[in-house]
């Protein structure tokens, strides 16, 4: 779901395919790897790499020393054949309880699909982050990267994973990239990588959390059930700027317009375009929610059979909530899509609002057009994050490779996403437009201790918060399971951590939620017998 800068020519040079002549010779994986190296191509390693360094960060007056590891995880199929190398960066606490098998660990991933996890890595809850502030263009280098007092390292060890084809993650040998470019293919790769990290680091007894952003929430829903089905029950899943159900995005369906209306109201409130502006954004959103699920949904459901009087009434109220004119709304058949809203809201000022974050404003070459030329909120931050990620990995963490860090797998050769999804453990057949809230619901029904936190930005126009509410509130959970689902909201956009005030509040909310999730599992444990060491026994070799 995230727009990216297009570096197609550079990306093609970064991981060129072997010649057709070499392919036709039927070489083994080892021979192909050797041939690529001899030809001077940059390739991902089959043998796992690991570069460690030390750092520290202060959280609430407490100094936290940590070990940072930049490296790769080799993904293998059921026969042990290496199929891909997934790049990761981890931060594990040193000192007391260092290496404890019971210390929580969180696996982070961005979305796309096809995005590396540089956004969460360099912007959110790692021990360092790029400093951001007002919703405006981040000025060019040098970029302000500093220690992060809002890191989650005090609550959990942190592992940031890059999807195959993105960052430094690549397929290996004769495995085609298409083997990872799909809903279920991608989930399987992450499940194998997480299992490998847990096994390699002896963390099977650690409380485990997933933290996905954007498309990463769709991945997270299916991944939670996949891991549980493979014997790895989770303590918690964080859904950050959620989109769980792509079915609503099909042309001709009205639910997407219902989902967007409260976000339009929040954006109009922020830019002071409402004729009777409520005192707070919460009030503006509450009014829009009530209208969206009531008169607005009913009107859309009537299609062309709606009467003129009802059309006028709905358009008038919609204008009061969104800042658009009733005439414009009626000409759009009461269905204002996102690009038109971005362009129309501030048309009198010749400005457009952002998609990832509608607090951002910019200008198009043509102020009379009906759709923005680009997403100003993406352009404002992309260069800073790409530069900061490359500098942090290579200079600060000391990881060296000839590969180019891809800002997106979408620019890689052969990228074409397979959107089909088959939920495990469900009687229904294959989905052509994925809805992994079904998978997450199955995981929550199977694991009564699984906590789910949905974190949402008022000004996120890429994955509107009302859409997340709709998706997650249709999981058909029983009351006991529904109590494990929680929603929080912040005055920010898709990447809520760009707002320092929102970041501080998110850290407070997450700290309390982590404590609750871990305590819920521990409080349900039976009285423990003495450990092997306490009993004076010798563990088996």
From TrEMBL:
| Disordered, as annotated region | 23-56
The positions making up the signal sequence are: 1-19
Q: Name one Pfam family in it.
A: Peptidase_S10
Keyword tags: Signal
State the InterPro entries in the record: AB_hydrolase_fold, Peptidase_S10
Ranges of Basic and acidic residues composition bias in the record:
23-35
Q: Name one GO biological process term.
A: proteolysis
Q: Which Gene3D superfamilies match?
A: alpha/beta hydrolase
Q: Does the keyword Heme apply?
A: no
Named from the GO MF annotations, one term is: serine-type carboxypeptidase activity
Q: Which domain of life is it from?
A: Bacteria
Q: What name does the UniProt record give this protein?
A: Peptidase S10
């Amino acid at each position: 779901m995230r727009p990216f800068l297009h570096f197609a020519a550079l990306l093609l040079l970064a991981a060129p395919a072997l010649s057709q002549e070499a392919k036709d010779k039927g070489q083994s994986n080892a021979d192909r790897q050797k041939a690529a190296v001899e030809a001077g191509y940059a390739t991902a390693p089959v043998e796992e790499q690991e570069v460690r360094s030390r750092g520290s960060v202060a959280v609430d007056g407490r100094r936290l020393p940590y070990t940072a590891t930049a490296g790769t995880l080799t993904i293998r199929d059921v026969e042990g054949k290496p199929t891909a190398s997934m790049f990761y960066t981890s931060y594990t606490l040193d000192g007391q309880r260092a290496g404890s098998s019971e210390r929580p660990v969180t696996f982070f991933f961005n979305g796309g699909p096809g995005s590396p996890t540089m956004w969460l890595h360099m912007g959110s809850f790692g021990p360092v982050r790029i400093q951001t502030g007002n919703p405006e263009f981040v000025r060019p280098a040098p970029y302000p990267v500093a220690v992060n007092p809002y890191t989650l390292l005090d609550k959990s060890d942190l592992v940031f994973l890059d999807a195959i084809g993105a960052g430094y993650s690549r397929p290996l040998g004769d495995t085609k990239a298409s083997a990872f470019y799909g809903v279920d293919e991608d989930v399987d790769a992450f499940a194998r990588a997480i299992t490998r990290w847990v096994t390699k680091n002896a963390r099977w007894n650690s409380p485990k959390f997933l933290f996905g952003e954007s498309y990463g929430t769709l991945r997270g829903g299916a991944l939670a059930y996949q891991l549980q089905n493979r014997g790895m029950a989770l303590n918690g899943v964080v859904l950050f700027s959620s989109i769980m159900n792509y079915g609503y995005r099909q042309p001709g369906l009205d639910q997407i317009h219902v989902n967007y209306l409260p976000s339009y109201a929040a954006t109009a409130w922020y830019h002071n375009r409402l004729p009777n502006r409520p005192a707070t954004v919460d009030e503006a959103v509450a009014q829009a929610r009530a209208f969206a699920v009531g008169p607005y949904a009913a009107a859309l459901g009537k299609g062309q059979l709606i009467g003129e009087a009802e059309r006028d009434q709905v358009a008038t109220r919609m204008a009061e909530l969104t800042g658009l004119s009733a005439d414009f709304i009626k000409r759009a058949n009461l269905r204002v899509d996102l690009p038109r809203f971005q362009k129309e809201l501030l048309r009198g000022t010749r400005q457009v609002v952002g998609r990832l974050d509608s607090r951002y404003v910019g200008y198009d070459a043509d102020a009379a057009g009906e759709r923005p030329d680009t997403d100003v909120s993406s352009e404002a931050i992309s260069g800073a994050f790409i530069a900061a990620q490359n500098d942090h990995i290579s200079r600060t963490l000391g990881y060296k490779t000839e590969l180019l860090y891809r800002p997106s797998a979408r620019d890689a050769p052969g990228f074409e996403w397979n959107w089909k999804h088959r939920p495990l453990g469900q009687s229904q057949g294959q989905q052509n437009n994925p809805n992994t809230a079904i998978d997450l619901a199955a995981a929550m029904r199977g694991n009564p201790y699984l906590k789910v936190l949905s974190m949402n930005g008022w000004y996120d126009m890429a994955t509107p918060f009302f859409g997340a509410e709709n998706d997650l509130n249709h999981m058909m959970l029983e009351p006991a399971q529904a109590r494990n689902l929680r929603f929080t909201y912040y005055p920010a956009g898709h990447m809520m951590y760009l707002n320092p005030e929102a970041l501080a509040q998110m850290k407070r909310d997450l700290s309390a939620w982590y404590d609750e999730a871990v305590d819920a599992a521990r409080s349900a444990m039976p009285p423990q017998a003495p450990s092997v060491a306490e009993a004076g026994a010798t563990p088996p070799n």
